[in-house]
Amino acid sequence: MMSEPGVLTIKPQAGPDDVLLRIIDLTLHFPTYRGVLGRQVGGIRAVDGVNLEVRRGRTLGLVGESGCGKTTTGRVILRLYDPTGGRIEFDGEDITHIQGKKLRRMRARMQMIFQDPQACLNPRMTVGSIIAEPLNEHRALKGKEKEKRTRELLDAVGLNPKFANRYPHEFSGGQRQRIGIARALALNPDFIVCDEPIAALDVSIQAQVVNLLKDLQEQFSLTYLFISHDLSMVRHLCEDVAVMYLGKVMELGPRDLIYKDPMHPYTKALLSAVPVPDPRVERARQRIILKGDLPSPANPPSGCRFRTRCPVAFDRCAAEQPAWRKVAGNRWVACHRAE
Amino acid sequence: MLNYAIRRLLMAVPTLFLISLMIFSLLKLAPGDPLSQLPLTIPPEVREKMRAALGVDEPLIVQYLLWLKQFFVIEPLRGFDILFGTHLSDGMQRIISWQTRGPVFSMIAERLPQTLLVVGLAYIVGVLIAVPIGIVSAYKQYSVFDQIGTFLSMLGLAVPPFFSGVLAILIFAVYLDWLPTIYNTNLIVNSWSNFTEQFLQMAMPVMVLAVQTIASISRYLRSSMLDNLEQDYVRTARAKGMGENVVVFIHVLRNSMIPVVTVITLGLPSVFGGAIVTEQIFRVNGIGQLLITAIYANDVPTVQTLAFIFAVLIVVFNLIADLLYGVLDPRIRYD
Amino acid sequence: MLRMVSLLAGAGVASLVATPALAERGTDGVVNILSWQAPSIMNPYLSGGEKDTDAASLVLEPLASYDENGELFPRLAAEIPTVENGGVAKDLKSITWKLKPGLKWSDGTTVTAKDVVFTANYCMDPKGGCAALARFQGVDKVEALDDLTVKVTFKELTVVPYTLFVAMWSPIIQAKQFADCLGTKAPTCTEANFYPVGTGPFVVANFKPNDAVQLKANPNYRDPNKPAFAGVNFKGGGDALGAARAVLQTSEYDYAGMLQVAPDVLSKMEKGGKGKLLSVFGTNVETLFMNLTDPSASLPPEERSTDKHPHPILSDVRVRQALSMALDRARLSEIGYGSMGKPTCDFVPAPPIFAAGNTECLKQDIPGAVKLLDEAGWKPGPDGIREKDSKKLKLTFVTTTNATRNQFQAIIKQWWHEIGVDVELRSLDASVFFSSDPSSPDTYQKFYADVQMWTNYSDAPDPGEYVATYTCNKAPLPDKQWQGSNVPRYCDTNYDALVKELGKTAAIEKRAEIVKKLNTILSDSYAIMPLVWRSSVSATSKTLGGYVGSGDSRFWNAQDWYRRK
């Protein structure tokens, strides 16, 4: 039921320099207050120096444990939060601090699919109006045309166009996520952040939605940032993978290289937890069990973030933050051991 | 939905009967005497005769059944007569107040206009002011506006009308001499100067009552808005590139109003019930004052009738609130 | 309650009466009256409550009324019948009233003796629940001798025949209007009860029960130049403090009465100079009542608080006297009423001719009280509370819930504690305490306590009826449904004999002498302890002229009011 990764190779290959989205040292610190007078006493470093590149027409998988800042990163990229530092470049344009009309125009090109398909749809609006609403705002489509476009979109995501007059609660989880996708597609975006789009769905429906995303990518030449904690799904869908830990990206590279030869001990630990379909290999698989809990993002460890749980940590890890280094070609890693 | 409403109303009938019986029993069990306010110089034998004339000493079941008959048969017939000019209720004994020896329903009809005007207007003014305050407080949570709003709401909820009312009188009537302290229920508005007079005499009671509505409704709306502002669909709306006005007023406000509309609807019976304290302070003499004087005077027929009407109103407005919920929230269906 | 200006309070009033206006009818606009207890009915026969009878007195008139000095003056009557002018029969068994000729009802019809006879029939109907029925007791028949003459015949010798058709409680109503309102039909006549046709200076134009009454000048009033006001705006609701404010501070209203407000607050308001306070001393006396019978809960209900069991503590007069001596009545009066009250030892404080003027109780004497209790055999126990035969000297003291009364309770408890008496205080809602419901255990008449406090008063200037309330046969008993006016269950054959003698004495000087004697007997029994002679306080605006606060109704001379320019 899953299509082979090879299917994607039919797509026109984007050149290595054809970067649609580039993120440099992106930070987002939420201030924390304490006391009667509410003095600012520190900050939650939800995103703390993230570097990413997403190439046009490709899918970058962003993986990590829950709470590591994946979702926040996705939202900052779409400027749903204002970054506290760093830079976001979209299609060669710096969008880090744009506001007002310019931002709204940019939003038409960047969309998001949310994890919870129920919560992301306004319960008091019909499916048709949810999909059509941005069309008024950005496309100035009128009556018939708008209806036609809505029907097209519903059709594109595999829903009966007659459903336009129904309310979100009348649909199943998978159908709602299709509505969410149709809505995201309404403005013909270039780039879509898929924030764990299948996590809340039944396993039987997950594959359908993933395949739909793939088909749509092909059909509309979309670029995806696919946020997930499901490494098998990421392997299936993404060409590139970034591994995030406590607000920072640990490793970034092409999927096959990452899965075959992970460089960062955290990546290794994550991959060791993924079951393998081959029973022989599965039996021989050795899990690397990480000890301890994820440290608080309000007070991250010195030096390397991961050192407190790293099986191969040594003195330098506590003293010095590992640099974000290009190892080879498109591979980047931040680890003293990988030098 | 019609079936649902009818079913609910039918289910309310036994409840209301039970309520009427309970009100009656409680009033009868409570100590007190309709003649206790009379001068002590009226000798005991005469008091006995007066009690007998009022029917106070009839067996309780007789008194209760008589009231039921008067409330459910004679008074509706009377209403029918007034509407259609018939004479069905002629010669029938209506519910008579022990204080005034006049029909209770005439008194209610006489007092309802000023209660609806003052308490109702205060409610409307309160809601109209509360909504923008709630929106801004939630949208700019923890801003100076929100902090001031929170403080004033707490003050509005904490300060009882018998304090704020007297304070208002001291400031606006005694020291500034701008507003009258006594509400003239006989004022007929038929000219510009009458209108001004009516406006001035309503200003203080409406103000005092509206403060409480503002305080509670703005708090409700604020917390409901805050709940909704955090929802993914709001993020969706922003991600769609919708302007902030659309996001706040179309997406967030409409969803936030669902519980608030319910709260507002459930508060409506109290508009009919009047405001006992505020009506007393400003001598608006509406339904609230009628109830409290009747209670003081142990005027059982009046108290019983009013309490029962309130019970009916509460049942009806609860139903309306539920039905409104269904209209406003497409997720809820009554079938 | 009857309001009479005592000699002490008269000075302030006299200046107000000085200049009657020479105006025409209806030229002075509207007079605004604020009564925090609004009238609920305009027919005094169906209410008896002061708020209603006072308002009704603007519309309905009796044959004769009491003026500010407690003297009778004719209203509808041509003159006051007396034995001298032949109006009262020599055998004191009948009285003949003559109406003024040419009197008109407000609807223009003529007032006749038939209306007076009808009024008697209306009130004397046993099913009507007439509040003034007591005034008609002892009446054998009321008959019209001609169109202007009414003869009332009594069953027995009646020395004070001025009860029915006299004062605001018993006005004349129109036969035509109330013809169908006799007996059980009385309460159904809403129109007549709210809009009675009268002979008074005003007519009801708009009646909203318990809210507002609008009255306009009676076009058929007998004096063509009166009243000076074209109308009365009578507004109710709110509380006494707010009513005082509306007259004294914001001057929205001309008159507010029954101002039971702390004395210092009122005098502060008066200093604003927009209005005046008026204290009228009637017969109201705040009084302590001692239970002379045993209220112990261990007794069977038909014997509890009855003369079958004398009170274990209070039946000893020495104890009662000691309790009285421990009181400082002047302090109480000052604290609770300021200039609106006077300490008193008399339960009949007015009119002056009947007042005994005793003063010996006014001095507080704690050592004397201690000595008396010692003599009575009550010795201080280890905790300071006196004991006798291992029984503690402990009393339950009940009154109504009211700031002044509860303050009094606390102060009295303190004084009694000083002489070794333990006091348990209770307060009850007035509507419960004054209830006539025989099934309630908390009524003042049942007296399931040792000491009670409330205000007692007489409603006629002649205290004959009032002193008769303490005869032996008036004690509340279970087989009388606990109805009876002799609440302390006082019983003295000498007292009863004197009351009987008073019933046969017509000469006023003689009567006064007997009343004074009765007053002293009762005072010396210490069964009731008068504390403070209370006035009724009202406020009038500077521009209301002609107002005289005393008389049987607060508005008894409304026809003479005018607007001061």
Automatic annotation (TrEMBL), chain B:
Subcellular location: Cell membrane
Signal peptide start-end: none
Keywords: Cell membrane, Membrane, Transmembrane, Transmembrane helix, Transport
GO biological process, alphabetically ordered: transmembrane transport
GO CC list: plasma membrane
UniProt keyword annotation of Ion transport present: no
PROSITE patterns linked: ABC_TM1
Family listed: Belongs to the binding-protein-dependent transport system permease family.
Official protein name in the record: ABC transporter substrate-binding protein
Record organism: Mesorhizobium wenxiniae
